[in-house]
Design brief:
2 copies of one chain form a homodimer.
Chain A lengths: L34 H24 L3 H13 L4 H8 L3 H13 L3 E5 L7 E5 L1 H12 L1 H6 L7 H15 L2
Antiparallel strand pairs in A: 1-2
Helix pairs in contact in A: 2-5, 3-4
Chain A binds a DNA duplex (23 and 23 nucleotides) through helix 4.
DNA sequence: TATTGTTATACTCTATAACTATA
DNA sequence: TATAGTTATAGAGTATAACAATA
């Protein structure tokens, strides 16, 4: 049978002159089992939520937000540790810190123990923005609860942590 | 108590002069419940797997791979539908198709029914690359099974589909 | 007039190499 | 000699506006 030409699961012998009508009818083929693809698709949703609840209201990008949250939750951190936690190269982190510093959200203090190193410290304004935008995470996640139960939300995060593995 | 100054869950009153030592010890604060953050972290893992199993072996980027899989699984598609399925702007899709066409993986045929429209068709070489790289998805996903059971992998994809909602 | 696709352009994001200052 | 951080720069990814061809 003609299907023998199709060594992969999910690959139909399509009739070349009768393509599906709607893009939502499209078959994913091998993609349907590729985690990375579904992560990319889901991130479109979460990015939209982020923009609406945090990005636009507070003028923050995703990494800027994550950085503020980390310093808020842990106290002063060196750029070195922030770069590791955010999986950012040192030069990119420098530019990121420059922007947030220019906005008056943080300052860099040289460490007294090792004068090569720095401590990234939130200013008062930085504290305010970090706490307010951090609080916005609650309604942001709630917006997902029409697609996902709370238990599914928690389960999803737990599974993603296993994938991230750190 | 001092904790009253901390209106958000997961926000300790950190001792300003005793930051955590290892970055893996860092508290995520509000981030711990933010799905988008965990998606971003997990995508670092899946992107690495993609690069190793598909990106480098076949010289394909993520969107290029997705595009090939869609045309492989559905047959000739118009740029319009591809742009919707891949959530890509029309100009960017044009450049993407240009690259793949230059490599001889696909060609563009004008539709006879509506001469504004086109059909993106895989060349023989494109079919070969698509089938081979599509087959590489199997070992790529298998590489996750030391972090995730097969059931968890399937569950994770199902939950992500709910989040993506399309 | 509306739609498909292209061109031109700019802005963000990310990656690398070379540099400084401290250790 | 090694490490923390910076500067400079280039590449990839993405967004918008203006345009051509067809409907």
């Amino acid at each position: 049978m003609a299907r023998d030409r199709s060594p992969l699961p999910g690959l139909p012998d399509w009739p070349a002159d009768r393509p599906p009508k709607a893009f939502s009818d499209l078959s994913l083929g091998p993609l349907s089992d590729v985690l990375g693809y579904h992560i990319a698709q889901a991130s479109i949703t979460t990015f939209g939520l982020f923009e609406r609840h945090v990005g636009q209201p507070f003028g923050l990008r995703k990494v800027e937000y994550s950085l503020l949250m980390l310093v808020l939750a842990n106290g002063p951190l060196s750029p070195k540790k922030l770069a590791q936690a955010l999986v950012l190269s040192a030069p990119n982190l420098t530019l990121l810190l420059d922007r947030l510093q220019e906005r008056g959200l943080l300052r860099r203090e040289r460490s007294q123990l090792d004068r090569r190193s720095q401590n990234v410290v939130l200013t008062d304004e930085g504290q305010r923005v970090a706490r307010a935008s951090g609080a916005a995470a609650v309604p942001m996640e709630s917006a997902l609860f029409d697609r996902l139960s709370r238990a599914e939300h928690a389960m999803l995060i737990e599974l993603l942590r296993k994938v991230a593995g750190r």
